Amino acid sequence: MVNPIYIIILSLLAGFLLSIFDKGGRKLSLTVFYSVLTFNVFVIADWFYRFAILGVSTLTINTAGFSAPLSINLQLGMLESFVLLFANLAGLLSAIYLIKKFKESKISSLILYLILIMGVNGLVMTRDLFNMFVFLEILSISTFALTILTKNKKSLSAGFKYMIAGGVASTFFLLGVIFVYYFSGNLNLEFISSNDFTNYGLIGVFLLAIGIFIELKPFPANGWALDVYESVNSGIVAIIAVVNSAAIIFVLYKILPLLPTVYLSVFTGMGIVTYIFSNLVGIRQSNPKRLLGYSSVAQMGLLAASLFYTTKLGVSQNISFLIAGGIFINHFIAKALLFWIAGIVKKNNIKDWSVLRNNIPLLILFGISLLALSGLPPFPGFWAKWEMVKVFVGSKYYIGLSAILVGSLLEAFYLFRWFGYTTKNKLNKETMEQVQFSQIFPIIVFVLILFFTSFWIMTNVYSLNYFNYLPLVAIFGMFLISFLRSKVKAIISIAAVVLYGYFLFPLGMSIQLLFGIIFIIGSGIVIISTINRKNTGKGFYGFLLMMIFGMGNLIIAESFLAFFINWEFMTIAAYLLILRGKRAKIPAIVFITFSLAGAYFILAGFGYMPNIANNGAIINTIGTIKIPLMAMILMIIGFLVKSASFGAHIWIPGAYAEAEDDVTPFFSSMFSKTGIFGIILLAISFIKQTPDFDLFYWLGWLGAISAIVGAFLATFQEDVKKLMAYSSMSQLGYIIVSISLLSHLGWISGLYLTLNHFMFKAMIFIAIAGVIYRTGTRQMYKMGGLIKKMPLSFITVLIGIIAISGVPPLSGFGSKWLLYNSLIEKGWFLQAGVFFFASAVSFLYLYRMIHSIFLGQMKYEHQNIKESPIWYLIPQVIFIIGIMAISMYPNLIIQPLNTIVGNYFNSSIVIDGYNVTSSLGYWNGNMVMYVTMGVFAVPLILLLLINGRTQTVKQFNIVYAAERPESPQTTHFAHNMFSHYYKALGGLTKPRIQSFWNYVSEGTNSLAGLFRQIYSGNGQTYILHIILYIVAIYFIMGV
Amino acid sequence: MISVIIIITLGILMIIAGIVALHLKNLLAAIITAGVISLLASVIYLILGSPDVAMTEASIGSGLTTIIFLYALNKVRKEKKDD
Amino acid sequence: MIKKIIVILAMIGLIMMLFPLVTNFEFLENLNDLSTNYVSGSVNELNSQNVVTSVIVTYRGLDTLGEVTVLFLATAAIGFLLKKKKTKKRGSSELLQTASSFLVALIILLGVYIFTHGHLTPGGGFQGGVIIATAFLLLILSDVNIKFNHTILQVVESFSGAFYVVIGLIGLVLTIGFLNAKIIPLGEYGNLFSAGAIPIIYSLIGLKVGSELTNILDTMRGE
Amino acid sequence: MIFALILGFALLLIGIYGMLSQKNLIKIVIGFSIVDTGVHIIIVSIGYLRNRTAPILNSVVDLGKAAQQVVDPIPSVLVLTAIVIGLAVTALMLTFVVELYKKRNSLSIDDYQELKW
Q: How far apart are alpha carbons D80 and D65 in whole angstroms?
């Protein structure tokens, strides 16, 4: 137990004497320097342990032998030690990071650095206002000087702007201090109360608060700070961005009790404005450090806003600590990490960061930091955001809520784009400099701390069920065994999926079982096709398992929080999987932007949710609560994004097409079903509780539109994967409609369609993967006649498209029959008409696909092609068996579905032997099968008989004329196959939605461009901004 | 009463000096004028009953600061000559 | 032009903002509790005539330590920024040099007087320190080629600061609090050797400030 | 003394105006030091009480009634610290100006805006 004032004493002693020590050699002075920094960390860590674990009460340290208010006193409690622990640790680590610089540069730099850290300690601990000013100046002056640790024109002019702005801010702070003294007669915070200030006395408090607030770099009075972030040495910027900001935000926290409520509201608003606008401007930024600067500024705005707002509402200590503390740690660690990494990479344009690919471990650390900064689980920022949304919704602060979510989205956008550039941009032949251990060490320590705090929150604050950790365990585990051969890893993955399913899945007849089959068993089967890979990059199976476990956990999630974190896990994993595709840079960013936007809608929706009993999976308990309409709408939007419904469908073609070919089946047949699962989840509550508003009627229409638009879009694709992607959109439209019917028959058909779609999409996509694997192209007109070479794949696709199109005898027919029955039963005739039409259109694209690929003339270059590899064929065969089984014996599936849906609706069908009877008629799958087989057998026999006879051909039939057109591709029948339909119907497929989203993105971009004009780079203008800002805030508050 | 008159007179002088200091083209003169403001301020401190502050302002505010300003100006000029 | 208008608007806004502070201002009739305590404490507890000094050195000693640190930082920062380059220049007349050396001794003496009497008369370590620095300035001005012994300057600067901290530390070790001036007897009111450690602390501050400012001046002189 | 307070604010405003309107870096620093002086005067005048003497308790002051005879010592204390800090900041700013000038040979703040957006 060391009195914390020793931190100040020792730092000062060492600081004063360092130049003397330096006479004995730099080694000696460096030793002293690092020992003192380490000493600080240990002292504070010890105290933090006492406060947090042993529950020691807050420590007050008097100086000069007098107690406050006579003398200045310091205070160290739980919060102070928490902030200081991080600050000192970052101080030590950044010093280690800078060791090379410190060895070379003048001794003054060590002194300045040491005293800077001392200043932070003093600033956080002191309870005296004027002493705060003194420590603030100590902090500022040492920072100003350190900005030119690497001296160049840029850092000098940035440093000067920083000094001027800092000088103005601290002048206002000093004015505030003196007027607070005048009105309250005290300088010690313990002895000043907000009652001391009435009327114009408040100006004193205002000046105090605004002085500190300016130091926090609020938008738009923060141009100087951004220049500093851009130009100053990375190690120092890490300190400025995290340590200095931490100290200053803590000062703000200390003076909060003096502020009247109206200030709190206005400052909250200003913090949020800073958050959203800084992130907006950030999207135009290409300099990594300046980009991080915008993000830092934004995060400080968010942190300040959360502090002000929770104080204003009087939110309980724990929650406000979770929010502010979460944002704090998250920003603190992630930002330090990123600045450090930026200092190692040394590229001034984020587009050149591909050089980081030469150093995979660092790339991984970079990715982790970005994920953390984006506020995704399990990192601390996520939990903070979760609680913050609840608080905002609870207090009806909707503007703030939406601003924060939009801001988060913008931030995530530019961070993920950066990651995309890093992983996908062309790698020139440059190599990275050898990374010093001293530079990588701080990064590793902080990443470990990041994970530690994340898991600590997960276990100690939320006590989440163990299975929620599995997605993370999977990725770590796979990372650890990444040295194994790819095939071994595939088998381990299958085993992991099997074990996961075996231990976690309830076997009762419930919706859980159905989705369990899709997500778990389906994934297990589809993984088989990946065994074919000769060599997977690192992480592939980790991402895959993370996604699979994330999907599986949705089914058994026991709370909204658990549901949502798994939702995010699976989204992140999906993003990383898509990003592995060769040309996936743009699709991946589109995917993650849409997914996160959807996720934020869901997050906001959860904010509205009433509490739910914590016994068992939410899918079983959700019926007991009534979901508010607003929550319902928000969450449905979120779920629709995932199932690529009309309006949010533009991510789907790119993501499906550019993901690796054996990954696409996961997306189409499983991942897209999570949206359906979510909608079912909401619908269950909707039907159990009397709804106010028939939301699902409109949802039904949306499904119908998706079905028809998807079918049309599919028709005019040349790229087979895009075609199937739009087909998925269309098919999911069918499912959405049938779920929206909210009737027994509707749900049976919906679930039946879901299962069906899962099987045929998986097998078609695997078959296509095989074809692409052999032919090396996705363009259908470059293929043809593959039936001879790849007969098994042909059969799979044939069965698949029969199942899709809903012609007898396969399962698709049953599902269509059920769908039309339920639509008519409900009286949705118009929708039924739309579907009828959509089904007709789907014939077009299905025909096109199978014809272009497998029929017609074979391409010359494909003459030596082989059948798909065995690993592709195995899953296909399994799915064929599945489809045939349920086609022959529909009761295998109808019977259980009847039981499952019976939990929610009264039964409306009778199942008798092979007959399924509804109010409109009956269907005997078995008989349909035999009849159809008979119908097909007759022409088949006829054909076989007449086949082999010579045919005479007219002279002008060029098909057999052996003439070669000049440009064979354009005359290939498969190229632009439905051009005449396009003349008639093409108008319907014009990419209006695409252009809408283009407008949104361009609009955002130019808005960002507009706002960043204020950062003119002129130091004087920046001072003007500060003065105008102060005046404006003053009048807004109406002191 | 006398002190009030002194303060008003000094005050007017200081304000004028302030404005002049900012508008003088000649940097040397501007710096000296700014130093004069500090010097006059120290008289005001004396009247306001703070001799400690007066001493400090006279020595640091008007003395040392001005010298540092002059040094800086000198350096800038020397740079100019060097090129 | 537009910028000028905005600047003027900003100034008007600022004036409107600060206006109430002036118009509503009322001077207090009596000292507040805190100052009263300081005034009586200075006499009764610290035996120091100059209340300002006793507040600076003891009650708000941490501020003063910080203040010394700020100056120290500035010295370090300026030293960090400016490179010293040496160019020979013509020296000044011998007469001037002799005269100034004589004056320098006197001025230093004055400085020492001021910081050792900080608890009795106006002034103290900072003012005294500045005066000492002025003495060296005089030397610099009279002889442009003069070189100060930087080691001595540095030793004085470093150790005076360090001793200041150590004196504070003694109070902590004696468990009467960091920077407590009562670590040595308070002496008789009004004497030079009174007010506990205040004169010692102020002398150390004086030395530190003096050497630091000399250092700054020397660095800024540069050539 | 209300005039001192007004004077302090006036200097504060003049200084800020100078910082906002002058292009020359040295002038801006001069503006800053005028702001500083203004703030110091404000602080001292806040501690002023009518008809009282300096807080130096020598023979002039009756020790028993000292508290009724002297002005508030605290503002003086604060100003002392503030003046020294102001010196430090001003000196550092000027050093920056000198270094900037070395890099670009210009004292106009408009010439240092390569960092923007």
A: 26
* Cα A364 to Cα A368: distance, rounded to the nearest angstrom: 6
Q: Using one digit for the tens of pLDDT, what is the confidence trace for C16-49?
A: 998 888 888 888 888 888 888 888 888 777 777 8
pLDDT of C95 > 80? The answer is no
Q: Is D56 in contact with C11 (Cβ distance < 8 A)?
A: no
With beta carbons less than 8 A apart as the criterion, state whether A222 and A297 touch: yes
pLDDT tier at A953 (50, 70, 90 boundaries)?
low
Of A660, A727, A673, nearest to A519 (Cα)? A673
Q: Please provide the DSSP assignment of A141-188 as one string.
A: HHHHHHTTSS--HHHHHHHHHHHHHHHHHHHHHHHHHHHHHHHHS--B
Mean pLDDT to the nearest integer, A426-433 = 79
Beta carbons of B52 and C222 less than 8 Å apart: no
Comparing CB atoms, the residue among D4, D31, D79 nearest residue B22 is D31
pLDDT of residue A413: 94
For the stretch C152-173, pLDDT in tens is 888 888 888 898 888 888 888 8
Pick the CATH number of D2-111 from 1.10.40.60, 2.30.110.10, 3.40.50.300, 1.10.287.3510: 1.10.287.3510
One-letter amino acid at A584 equals A
- Contact D84/C55, CB-based, under 8 Å? no
The residue type at A824:
I
Compute the nearest-CA separation of C132 from chain D (Å). 15
CA distances from A898 to A748, A887, A893 (A): 7, 17, 9
Phi and psi, residue A61, nearest 5°: -120, 115
Please, are residues A426 and A366 in contact by the beta-carbon 8 Å criterion?
no
Degrees, nearest 5: CA angle A249-A255-A261: 105
Lowest model confidence (mean pLDDT) among A657-666, A744-753, A782-791, A969-978: A969-978
Q: How is chain C split into domains, by residue range?
A: 2-221
Contacts of A130 (CB under 8 A, 6+ apart): A177, A181, A187, C60, C63, D78, D81
The subunits that touch chain C, with at least 3 C-beta pairs less than 8 Å apart, are: A, B, D
**C220 contacts in B (CB within 8 Å)?**
68, 71-72, 75
Residue spans per domain, chain D: 2-111
Cβ <8 Å between D115 and A1017: yes
- Residue ranges covered by each domain of chain A: 464-939
* Burial call A272-310: b when 16+ CB within 10 Å, e when fewer: bbbbbbbbbbbbbbebbbbbbbbbbbbbbbbbbbbbbbb
Residue C85 has pLDDT above 90, yes or no: no
Contacts of D19 in chain A (CB under 8 A): 164, 168, 1020, 1023
Cβ neighbours of C81 in D, within 8 Å: 92, 95-96, 99
Shortest alpha-carbon distance between residue A194 and chain C (Å): 18
CB contact under 8 A, C130 and B75: no
B to C CB pairs, distance under 8 Å: 44
Q: Give A1016 to chain D, closest Cα distance, Å.
A: 6
Identify the pLDDT of residue C142. 77
Interchain pair A1020, D104: CB under 8 A: no
At residue C86, the pLDDT reads 55
C12: Cβ contacts below 8 Å, ≥ 6 apart: none
Measured between CA atoms, how close is B67 to chain C, in angstroms? Answer: 8
DSSP state of A56: P
Query: Which chain A residue shows the shortest CA-CA distance from D107?
Result: A157
Q: What is the mean pLDDT of residues B12-30?
A: 91
**Is chain C touching chain A, with at least 3 CB–CB pairs below 8 Å?**
yes
Computed over every residue of chain C, the mean pLDDT equals: 82
pTM across the whole model: 0.93
